[in-house]
Design a protein that fits this description.
With about 230 residues, the chain is an alpha+beta fold. It contains five helices and twelve strands.
């Protein structure tokens, strides 16, 4: 499947010559994000899944380069790991092939569409499509196809008044029958009810998690000991 996917994308781009260097586009995004050495933020999480009742939750998020993440919360609900731990560096850290597709308007913003194909069989993602705002060197949207978790989409919103390339909101969309989501003691989740909904209608149930970021503190220094703790 990977060979067919790679050949199809390669042939399409041989027919339509690339006018932009995808590796350069991605490098600018990573270099921009790497200005952030660490940060903390308060986050509000809202889960929207038809058959799961989860109250809105609050937590504190800690991040430190290159890939350390810690979440501190009381009775934290569900949050997709792919959304919480996503960074430009994490997507591109393994060997990959990048293909520039075209430029499109996304919510009125000019973006360059770049497809990233991981090489080898190390990870779960087999293809990611990125909508990149080259003017601000930001990722506006990611759509990833995985081996085991179906397709998920992350939409990013940024504040025009914030100097760091960190979102003020992300929206993570996924198929609930595919995506493995952590649940906590506070959720009201009926497994029997979920089975009836999926089996009765024979449809894939979609889910959405909205995460809002508040009170960023960037490059203040975070000790490694913070990331050795279990989520509280």
């Amino acid at each position: 499947m990977m060979k067919i996917l790679f050949c199809s994308l390669l042939l399409s781009n041989l027919i339509i010559p690339q006018t932009k260097n995808p590796d350069e586009i991605l490098k600018h995004v990573v270099d921009n994000f790497n200005k952030v050495k660490d940060y903390t933020a308060d986050i509000n999480i809202k889960v929207d899944v038809e058959f799961i009742k989860v109250p809105e939750a609050k937590a504190k998020l800690f991040f430190k380069q290159p890939d350390k993440v810690h979440l501190q919360s009381d009775g934290f609900a569900m949050l997709p790991k792919d959304g919480l731990e996503f960074t430009p560096s994490s997507l591109l850290k393994s060997e990959h092939t990048a293909i520039y597709e075209n430029d499109v308007l996304l919510n009125g913003i000019k973006t360059s569409v770049v497809k990233v194909i991981p090489l080898g069989n190390q990870g779960d993602i087999i293809l990611s499509t990125l909508w990149i705002d080259q003017a601000k060197q930001l990722i506006r949207k990611v759509e990833s196809t995985t081996k085991t978790n179906g397709i998920f989409v992350i939409d990013f919103s940024y504040s025009d008044n914030f100097k760091y390339p960190l979102p003020e909101e992300i929206v993570f969309s996924f198929n609930i029958d595919k995506m493995k989501m952590p649940l906590t003691r506070d959720e009201d989740f009926s497994k029997e009810k979920s089975k009836k909904k999926i089996n009765r209608f024979g449809e894939i149930t979609k889910g959405r998690v909205v995460v809002k970021y508040l009170n960023y503190e960037v490059n203040k220094g975070i000790p490694d000991s913070v990331f050795e703790k279990e989520n509280q």
